[in-house]
Each structure stands twice: as C-alpha cells, then as structure tokens.
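Pilot study result, target chain (533 residues):
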Amino acid sequence: MKLLAATRRLLCILLVIIRYRLDDIIFALPLPWWLDITRYLLPWRWLPRPRSSLSRGARLRLTLEGLGPIFVKFGQLLSTRRDLLPADIADELTLLQDQVPPFDSVRAKALIERQLNARIVEVFASFEDRPLASASVAQVHAARLHGGEDVVVKVVRPGLQQIIDQDLAWLYLLARMAEKAFREARRLHLVEVVDDYAKTIHDELDLLREAANASQLRRNFENSPMLYVPQIYWDYCRPQVLVMERIYGIPVTDLAALGKQHIDMKLLAERGVEIFFTQVFRDSFFHADMHPGNIFVSPEQPWNPRYIAIDCGIVGSLTPEDQDYLARNLMAFFKRDYRKVAQLHIDSGWVPAETRVNEFEAAIRTVCEPIFEKPLKDISFGQLLVRLFQVARRFNMEVQPQLVLLQKTLLNIEGLGRQLYPELDLWNTGKPYLERWMRERLSPRRLLQSVQSQAEQIPHLASMTRDLLEQMSGKSQTSARPGSRSERLLTLLGTLLVSAGAIWASQAAASPLHSVWPAGLLLASGLYIVLRR
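Predicted structure:
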C-alpha cells in the first residue's frame, strides 16, 4: 500500500510539472549531453503547447501551489534563501499564500477530544465549528472556557505526518538528482535546504514546542508597552492541540482600519524595529515568522500603539559570539569600514580562515558603495544583508540557519515598517539601541556577572581535570599521595594554565575588553589547582 501511495503521489507530481512545463526551465540549463537528449524521449514534449507569458518564477510558484500545502510550505521556506536564488524566482516565491481549505470540524473535534481525553463540552463552554483560519499544518477554532475566558484552539490536520513523510521523500530524491546533474544545484545546496525544511515542518507539527516558544516570548516582553503575546493555557495543550488566549486586534496590513483608529504610524513602525533589535540582542530569542498574518495592533491606545504577535512555531536564537560579531559588523558597515567587516567575517568563522582579507574587502566595497550613495532612509537594510551573503558565498561562506532566519525576519520587519511609515529610517531607529547594547555589554554590572558566572565553573573545572588525570595515572583520588605522579601532573597542569593565562592577558590588551576574561579564567583555574590544599 505504501508503494502504491508513493507511486500515485509521483504521478501527481509529474502531471503538475507537465501542466506548467517546468521541464522547460530544467532543459534551459546547461546539461550533460546524456541528460540533454532525454528531452526527445519525453512524449508530452512532442505535443503542441499553449502559448504562455508566464515567467519561470511564476511557473515554479504555480507548480508548488498545484502540488499542495506541503510543497507550498517548502516554497515559502525557499523564498527566504535569497542568498541562493535568482531574484526573479525569489520574488515569485514570496507570493505563495498559505491559505488552504479547512478540514471537517467533526474530525477536528474528534482529534481534540482524543488529545485531551475529554469531551468538548467538558472542556469548553462553547466551541465554534467554523474555523477562524486554516493553514497547511493546522487550523484554528474559536472557543470559550468554562471560566469565561475567550480562547482559540489550534489543531493539527489529521493524517498529516504520512503525507509529509511521502512528500519529503520525493523532495529529497529530486534534490539529490538535481545536485548530481547540475552544478548550479550543487551550489544551491538543495539537499541542505530540504533538511532545513524537514526540521521546520516537523517542529511545526509539535504544538507543545510552539506553546513553549510563546510562553518564553511572553515572559521576555511581560508588561512591555511595545509587544503583547497571548497567554497559553497549558492545562489544555497537547502535541496536536494548543489553546491560547483569543486576541482582538487590527491586522497590521489593514492600513485603513489603523487610520480610522488614529494609530501613530511613525511610532508603530519604529517600535517594530526596536522589538526586532530587542529580541535579537537582549534576549537572543526572536520570532522568526513575523509575516503580516501573524501580527496585529491593539487599538486600545492609538497614541501608544502596541503590537500583538501570534504563531510562535518558528523562533531563532544567536550565540553570544554571533551576537557580538553581528553587532560589530553592523556598526562597521555604516561607518564604511569594509576592512573591519571582512576581518570580522574571518574571525567569526563565517568564511574560511585562509580567505585573503584584501580580496574580501574589495568585494564588500563593490557591493556596498553604490548602496551607501543613497540617503540612509532609502537603504534597504535587509537587502544589504542579502547582497552581502551573496558576495560572501563566492568566498565559500556557509550561511548558518540562524543567520538566514535573522535575514528573513529583518526583511519582514523592514518591509512592514516602511509600509506603515514610508519615511522609516531603519538605521537611525536601530542604531541607538545597538550602541546602548554594546555599552551595556561592557558595563561594570555585566562584567561582574560574567566574572561570577565563570568563577562558578572553576571548582567544577578543577574537579573534572583532577578526576581525568587520576584516571589517566591509574590511581584513584583516595590513594593519591603527596609527591605522587598524579600530584606532580596536577602541579604541572596548574603551572601551564597560569602561564597560558598570563600570555593570553598580554596579547588581549589591545582587544575588546570582553576578550580578556578567558585569560582570567585560565589564571584562576591554574591557581586553584596549584593551591587547592
């Protein structure tokens, strides 16, 4: 039965490809001769074809739409990889809509009852059969708890796992075939793109993960005047069911309704930028799916507008190292210090260490100088990152998933902000926050916290080191005697750590202040080992 279902699905894929003549795009590429001759063996290519003015990007988009919601979702993810795609295809894929027909409410209620192990009437005082919204992975129903709270109930589509597994299997097969046949496909890393999609779609199937993300984001912005995140009702959340507070806001793209409420559009646009920088740099936990359908505006205080965010299925985070290098990159960019930008990319490991700084600097200058000839308010910050990633890829830069999510989120925020307030200057809005964050990283309180955190690790580090050395020497801790081999090794290790710390401290004198602390950790660890008695 599985083989029959897979074969039927393959035929469906083939028919849609033929309908939109996606094979024309494939055969337009430079192919090996043995693959190029297959065009004459395909029977539908001998038939007359209707004239079409559709571009290759439009045909690809229509093909994904015809293949169903899972492929549509894949196209949406692919549209975020502007560092990999030609501009015309990326632009078309951004038009993909994730609106699909809802499934039967009877099946929805049956799944909810099975997940909650209770009847609908026992959990909800009222439950609306007609869904509020329907997407490729789940749909949402309005309901009311017995306590009187208005909620929405999100439920995963039944039987979706099997469909996803089948489609992913074919996507992997197509990606591998393309990488073997086309050099361009190998450059696009299609198999890695499918890997990213597989992780994303499986994460979205687990609504407990989404609930946890929403709770974390709500806690990060508790009592914030900028952003509100609905409350999660954990007692009613399961892997395939999520219950959260129902919100009543204005869709952020409904400019007419926002205007009727006299919303301060300039402040609203600027707050969107500040929310982005706060999530990325203060919390290192950012909502990575902030398309307009997931963002609303509270009408309660038009002079003090507040965003409402939903659907936290996809979030991103950065390591402290990525945060630091990203902040310093952004500051260097707008000072036009291209040498520093190039060096930071090498230091961070984003490009290979053997990259020639002069060549990379020249490539960055070629991209950035024409952009900076415009007024700052007219510069697309997101597009600048896209162009940078495209240049860096020529130097074998492997774009990390968290940076791709960051780029996608920034593009969404920037586009939304300028739709709300066309004169939005993204850089002048975000620069004060970025400068404040960099100062706070070097503030006495933050440095004291860093020292305290590192100091707490010293006993554990010393204990682990001692245990390891005793295991290597074949002697247990209880049998170790003064002057024994393990003691001499510990003393030698402590001396080496102190020496390494002193060398590191002397070399770090010209570096940013935070890079001195590894030297302090080495010195403290060595002294603790030597003087532990």
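One observation from the pilot: The longest helix spans residues 444-473. A full batch analysis is planned for the follow-on phase.
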